[in-house]
């Protein structure tokens, strides 16, 4: 039986979360999915197209899970730590767009520049 690691702080979890996203393609799929979620959310709210809101989890998790299953080859942390994982997705997206994503957690840091 698999044990679930206990994290005392979000900071501790986030270091683990980044290590679970060491493949650049997996990270980029997260960024695309999260960005599309924000775009669809904004469009749906501004245009009053609330029926589009059901797409948000499909888009967000769809891109992320493809990254995990086909490129990272691990199970998404969402299955064990849903709240911390959800928050970490947005922290990672923010850090991506502000060029402050810590690179020491990634295997292929030289590919980030290309």
Plain-language structure description:
The structure is a single chain. This protein has 114 residues and is mainly α. It has a domain of 78 residues. Helix content is 60%, strand content 0%. It has four helices and no strands. Helix 1 crosses helix 4, helix 2 packs antiparallel against helix 3 and helix 2 packs across helix 4. The longest helix has 24 residues. The protein is globular and about 40 Å long. The C terminus is likely disordered.
Helix amount: 55-70%
Distinct helical segment count: 4
How would a textbook summarize the main sheet? none
SSE string, helices as H and strands as E: HHHH
Number of β-strand runs:
0
Average the pLDDT over all residues and give the rounded result. 89
Cα Rg: 15 Å
- Measured by DSSP, the beta-strand proportion falls in under 5%
Principal-axis shape equals globular
The residue ranges in which pLDDT falls below 50 over 5 or more consecutive positions are 109-114
Secondary-structure-derived class: mainly alpha
- Terminal Cα span: 40 Å
Give a summary of the structure in a few sentences.
The chain has 114 residues and is an all-alpha fold.
Key structural traits:
114 residues; mainly alpha; 4 helices; 60% helix; 0% strand; disordered C terminus
What order do the helices and strands come in, and which of them pair?
Blueprint lengths: L9 H10 L4 H24 L7 H18 L9 H16 L17
Helix pairs in contact: 1-4, 2-3, 2-4
């Amino acid at each position: 039986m698999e044990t679930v690691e206990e994290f005392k702080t979000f900071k501790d979890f986030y270091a683990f979360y980044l290590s679970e996203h060491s493949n650049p393609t997996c990270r980029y799929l997260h960024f695309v999915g999260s960005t599309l979620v924000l775009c669809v959310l904004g469009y749906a709210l501004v245009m009053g197209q609330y029926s589009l809101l059901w797409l948000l989890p499909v888009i967000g998790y769809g891109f992320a899970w493809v990254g995990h299953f086909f490129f990272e080859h691990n199970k998404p942390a969402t299955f064990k730590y849903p709240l911390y994982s959800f928050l970490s997705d947005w922290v990672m997206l923010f850090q991506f767009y502000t060029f402050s994503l810590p690179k020491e957690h990634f295997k292929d840091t030289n590919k980030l520049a290309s």
